[in-house]
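I had to read the description of the data format several times before I understood it. The format is easy to grasp once an entry is in front of the reader. For illustration, here is how one protein appears when written out as sequence plus structure tokens:
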Amino acid sequence: MFNTIRSLVHARSGSAPEKHDKVELSEFAPWLESPCLQKYLTTCLPKETYAASGMRVKSIRGLLDELLGSPGVDLRERGYLVIASSIGGNAICVDINASVFWADHSSFYRDLDLISFEDRSTGNWIKLPFNDQNIRAALIPLSHDFPDFMTQLLHDKLESKLDELD
């Protein structure tokens, strides 16, 4: 599966994915515990950020930049890594179990100790205290199969689904 992902990254980005060792990726130590995410981070990261399914898929530099901005900094501290983002700043992130989620950039207000998100079943806005359980409630699950998700993303099969969320 990761050979396919590497080939797709090469085709989409115009250059072969970079290889990284665990030392280079020390900022991502929690996610390296997952064999699946370790394989992606060590062998599939592009040299430069590129577009797929309407999202910007992050290079190592892009991943590091996301750790400093919103919602990346808020999510990282709770075990989520932003791997792609929309033009509007919404994000696709993975948890340490390699499950994939959508994070709306306007949901997280750590300075106010608040999470705000739309309940997609009722359309009502919910405001909750900023904590792990409520962050999980604000995220929208996209997949529990990271390699399959990445393959679909790189084949542009998720553009309409992700546009609806954006």
In short: The CA atoms of residues 111 and 141 lie 25 Å apart. Residues 2-13 form the longest helix (12 residues). The chain is about 35% helix and 20% strand.
